[in-house]
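During the no-cost extension, the postdoctoral fellow (Dr. R.K.) reprocessed legacy sequence entries with the updated structure-token encoder. One reprocessed record is reproduced below for audit purposes.
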Amino acid sequence: MATMQNSFDPQYYCVIHPLDDAPEEKCSAEGLGHIAMTPTVRLSLKVLRGYLILMSIMLLYHVLDLAGIVHQLR
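Re-encoded structure tokens follow.
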């Protein structure tokens, strides 16, 4: 009966906690300028902004209605 050789060679890694590691160099956004956007992207962002404003107004109205303030104004 032939014996099988185990060719497994484990590699050990040293795990360093982020608080114990040296600080990394931060990226700087200076001098990058404006991001080029296509008209479709610009329109999509404007629609998203309008949607978020509308949802915020609806939330404010709902909160004021639950508080009974809207009912007093009618």
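The chain has a mean pLDDT of 85. The CA atoms of residues 36 and 64 lie 41 Å apart. The remaining legacy entries will be reprocessed before the final report is submitted.
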